[in-house]
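Standup, Tuesday
Yesterday: got the pipeline producing structure tokens again.
Today: sanity-check two examples.
Blockers: none.

Example 1:
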Amino acid sequence: MKTVKSMYLEVYLHAADRELEEHLPEIIIPDDLEVSYHIGDSGDMPEFVKDKNILVISDREDILLSVPEDRKGFTYLVYEGDCFEDIDPKLKKRLSDFWLRSADTEYKLFRLQNLLYRVDGECGRWMYRNLFNTTIDSMPDMMWLKDVDGFHYNVNRVYTEIVNKTKEQCEGAEHYYIWDIPKEEFEKGEFTCKDSDERVLSTGKMDVSYEPVKSAEGMKQFTTYKSPLFDPFGKIIGTVGIGHDVTDFGNMGIQFSMLIENIPFPMLICSVNWETIRANQHFVEFFGMDEEAIREFSYRDFKKEKMTPVSEAKVDADRHYRFQEFRIECDGKQRFFIIVEQEVRDTFGSISAYYCLFQDVTFQREYEKKILETANTDALTKLWNRRYFYDFLKNNENASMTLLYMDMDNFKVVNDRYGHVIGDEVLYKTARAIEEIYQGSVIARLGGDEFAVLIPKKIEKDVLKEMNLELENRVKGLFSEDGLNVSVSIGVVEWNGGKMDIDSFVHAADKRMYEAKKIHHGSNIIIK
């Protein structure tokens, strides 16, 4: 599958240090960034791409100053020199970084790596801010974001049209100013949406309300959907709201139809008996149904047979809705939805229908999974890291398991003689061999050339010995043709369940591994 890149960067390397060029493949490129390198002699004057973000690294001031200040996109300039104080003041103001010409290549690679992550972050912030503003301005309903004190810090196009103010006038302003009502009247709280704001801030939950709002043009009626905004520590920092104007009750039926079709999520309207009355176009297109299929569609059967719950159902009795997260397979891909089932009540308080809203949270779940994998995965070998290994032991300390503690023999010699690139290749290939042989086990790189394998089940000693011998032979064979005298020593410890002293358990395996290293002839494996 092709990886979609959302940002592009052209890197121009025009400096005397040509060793840096040889190590560019070692640079880790952020996932969202596509990087192209342009290598030239420091004596050449490069021609810069006009329609992409650029990063220019040079030891010549005139090359960096030749980059137009008014060019579109992001521009990053790095100067390699002997003294920062001697740089042209015009260039100083534009520099993104300064490298000492005498610094070693490893240092420059480190600075370049950090700069790429900075570029990724700054371009990403611009991209997602632009996507967010474009998205909310495309919505057919009002949308706004407030801080906890009620000051607006973003509104969409429809909002500005309804209140007859610009975005700049709305941002940083309170409700009374935007809606042209006296401040004293606003502070009384009547017809100002203050109650629903306070409910969201106090409960930390989404609020659906039918609210009359007073404006300079008279009373308006809105259906509002408000949700809390949280910071990374779970503290509420504001609210986001969507308001659907239903002031013209004579056109309620038309507006209701428009609302259903313009909600950017799959949505169903069901009868009191849960028979399908209507589905919006997003639902029809997403689940690939025609009109006949919709008429025969059973929402409850569909949910039971096709959707797998991944959270407990939550019910809000006061606001008459129920929501739960589900997983479903669509076109061979796994998707996640939060389904909101909202009661529709008539003027007598009786249930007249239900609407079911499918909120796609696949991106959020995949992002959460990616963050967890990144935090628990060794970057080089793609195995679990030390943190995950110890967390797994802690969470399964009462289970029976077998621990294999592994260490590469002669690895330091390989690193010292052939360099870290070859050393990294040895570690990576060894990791793949371990994965193939100990399938179904928890495999981690603990650091350096040390690996651990946790087999979470009872295993016969003869079977385990055969697997270990296979690994030893595989590792020797992988590198023997290249003249690398690499092997692996393994220490084995079994645990039969019960309260575990994790440190002692690991130490015992480590000790047996070192005993294995002392065996110079025959097997490098100890099983007791």
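Example 2:
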Amino acid sequence: MFESLTEGLSSIGAAAGGAVQQAQQAASAATKQAANTAQGAITEAQTAVSNATTAAAGAANNAIAEAQKAAQSAMAQAGAAAQGALQQANTALDSARNAANDMANKALAQANTALDQARQQAGAAAQNALNQANAAVDSAQQQARNMVKGALDTANKALEDAMATAEQAAQEQINRAMGMVDRATDLVENGVNNALDSANRAIDRAQDLLRNAATHALEQARSAVLDRARDALGGIAGALDALPTSFPNLPVDLPASSCPYVNALRDALARRAAAANNALGNAVNALQNVAGPMLDQASDMLDRADGLADQALSQMDRAMTALDDAQATANQAAHGAIDTAKGAVKQAQDAVRDTAKTAIDQAKSAVNKAKDQVNDTVNGTVDKAMAAVDSVQQKAGDAAQQALDTAEKAAEQAQQQANQMAQQVLTQANQAAQQAQQALNNAAQGALSTAQTAAQDAMNTAGQTAHQAVATAQAAVGQASNAAAQAASDAVAGAQSAIAGAGQAIGNAASSLGNLRG
């Protein structure tokens, strides 16, 4: 019976060792496969994040380049519109000046004709001629004033229309450029979000694979080793409990004899029977005292191995939790980087809009100021010319009256003087109008150049800011991806270590079962 117990312990130890080895091999293979799968998923996630970030950055850079081209096109169109408006204004002013000169010359010619007729007539006829001459001069003055005013109004209207067209074109181009920047920002954000979603799905899939593989391996180890070892220990404990605690005295029923040798043999057999009985009791006690504690120790070691397996699962859960935390931190960092980049792009857009608005307002103010100066100059020149004509008309009338009273020769001299003064006044008026026109052109050209320079600076600043925002977003996404990959690798390594520790604990328990025989 004792031999069967020791043989049972030996077979249990061998069976446990084989089961442990198989479980360890299965756990190692499952863990290795899960780790390789997790690493592959992490690598795919990093590649997806890198590709998405590169594609988004390329789209953003292309959108920025298109925005810069659109802004340059808008500046060119606005400059062309402004140049066209200046050309129309110059043409209108030239037409007004030429019309005024023609009207003045016609008025002088009519006045000279009237004066000639007045010299030839006498009395009332001469006075009527003077009156007609004065009326003709007054009519010519009014027509010249109306012509100049109409020309100025036409020039001002053309300039205002050109300014409005240029401003509208610039605003449309700026809005298009801002829309392209917004679309580029959306592309970056969508690409990063898609990459993060792919990375999160890959990491979650790796977590599930690792958790399922580790749990399955530990459950197989428990089922194959711990349960079988507990069953074997239960059988050995039952066998130990079935051992008798005492043995009956062996009968030595020998007939009494007077032969001393027979009596000596009977006594020797009795002593040996008593010794055998004692040896059996001692053997039972020794077996119970030794095998019992060893079975208890083996049972405790199995319980500890079971506890270590639970600890391994708990450590793996903590590792998965740490990976989830790292994943959440990486996602938060990536979204924070996106928000920062969007804020920088928004600031750049606002700066571009403010700068462009300031430049347009400055250009409009400069053009309006130059327009007012030209209007004031032209109106002042016209007023001076009309005053000079009135003075000439008055002098001519006085001279005509004197000529009628004295002689025709004095009238001719007065007429020549009036013509000379009128020509001088017209020359001064033309010079003043040309100077005002040149001042308008210089002011408009300066304002246009200032607006184009400000728009170019704003466009360059927006482009640099957008490029910096894209580079910042790329760097943040790369850091978040590396952090997530490192956290996933650490979690995989921790889970592998926990599974290896559990397998070692189970192997130690099985080895203890095998050592029970010794």
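Quick observation on example 2: Helices lie at 2-120, 124-242, 260-405, 408-514. The radius of gyration is 57 Å.
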